Predict the 3D structure of the following.
Amino acid sequence: MQLMISEPVMRADGPDARARVADIVAEAGLSNDAFYRHFPSKDALVAAVIEDGSTRLHSYLMHQMAKESTPEGRIRRWVEGVMSQARGDVAETTLAVMVNAGGPSAGRVRQYPSADVLATLLVEPLTELDSTAPELDAAVIADGVIGRLNALLWLRTAPTRAEVARTVELALRVAATD
């Protein structure tokens, strides 16, 4: 079953709507039995969609970071790439998946799921900048940037250039505090 089919279904009725298995199955052209052979529940499907999205974002960030020769440049690309998730169709899809990932009462408390996975990309440039605790610094930067992304998604607001630049500046300050 293609995971990409479920994303448009999750956003079809707006980012606050929770998709039904029947809608996902109909869009995919499957039967309920076929759906449940692949996934034990809708929550399992949503978890798979989140994992797939996290993998794609991780690959995108790696690609963006590889364009830079300095650790500061790689950190900047990472921040810019994460914050870009609050723009356009990507933001709508991400928010719809987040809504579907929580129970009916989860609402705004649901967080963007990938902070720990994405933080690993920051360890190497932080090590190059002589961080004495690169894993911790990476986690702090990722939690802050992804926390802001989470807020932007729920507010349905794209970050301004100034906000992205300030976020990059703060991330680089964390990197330079040793």
